[in-house]
Design a protein that fits this description.
By secondary structure, the chain is mainly α. Helices cover 66% and strands 2% of the residues. The radius of gyration is 37 Å and the shape is elongated.
Amino acid sequence: MAKRKSISKKTRFEVFKRDKFTCQYCGLKAPDIILHIDHIDPVAGGGSNNLINLTTSCVDCNSGKSHRRLDDNSVVEKQRRQLELLQEKREQVELMVEWKKSLEKFDNDINEIISDYINSKIKPLCINENGKKSIAEWLKKFNTEKILDGIDEAAKYLKYDDDGGIDKKSAEHFISKIPGVIFVKQMPPIKRKLAYIKGIARNRFEYWDDRIGAIILNNYVQALKDYGWDDAQILSDLENEVMSRTKDSENWNQWKSLIEKWTDDINKWEKEDSISNRRNNFYDNCEVSLDTLERGAHYEQCCADDKIEALIHIGSAFPNFNSKTFKEEAIETILVFIYKIEQLYKASPGKEVDEEQNFVCNFAENCSLNQYFNPPDSAFNYGVLLLLSEKCQGIIEDMLTEFYLPRTLYKRNDIDSLIKIHLQHYEEQSVI
């Protein structure tokens, strides 16, 4: 007779766990019954303590079976299937672990790509380990494309020192602004435009109450919705009217009074009223001082100058880019654009400039500044340069848009004054 070897507690637990603490003969479960470990092939017949030869049995079934070998091999087959299933699960877990490792590597690669893109905007500075941790957090919330777009948008916060390099504090500010910019860009179009308007007001006015400002703007939009305007009409009004007046208002009180007055006017509109009549009525009673016009013009010039500096910074990534030549040509391009605007107003006194077919867009696409951002086919980083080239075209168009003067916002005399101020400024710059 074969000598019986004791079964370890670990082996007993593995068998019970595999069989779900259920007798494999009668189906009763613990704790209703006492469970034993049974040898399918009895020890007396040479059966071993291998897992495949062990099964869970209640005390009654095990006593009744004694040392007789079961003729029915269903239990053995069941144990074999369970072991095969466990092995398959193990292999699947291992595959999942490998897949997770590959995802982590991919995430690290994406993190490095985004880090390099940020570094290209702030060089010779570079992002530190904390910055890379921030990028990892962004990747949990936003996709890569949105992050890259947010980086481009937040680059407007970069400032330059006297030597033409990136100011370190502005670089830190730029990086901190990226997630907020991405969040705003994900907002519905109207909310996004309102956030942009509040940002302009916050930067321009010495005093700004964000909570009350948001209420005033939301009331204004709600009044337009109640009147029956759709989202496209509201967006156009926010862009051409509210945003422009936010740039021109001298302080919080003036801006607040204006938007609240417009909201009251809308609530009193009859169906035959029009937005143009409302605006014209306002400006008929509004005297714009030369001092106000000069401040507005100065703000527009500063915005354009910032865009020129941004283009110069991006241009440093392009082979043979000459910052001095580019700046001179940018000033000449602005001058030509302002002259064109002046000619259009003189040639069509009763016609809006924006009725000319995509005037600003076409001028920007065909101006000579674009040639500075044409990536050479032989460039090792051609793909990156091509992406930067497209972004630069958008910045050039934005720069020229600063000098677009809609007649729904300005009287003809004010437009003439603003054109004169702009021409004088850039003619002096051109001479210098």
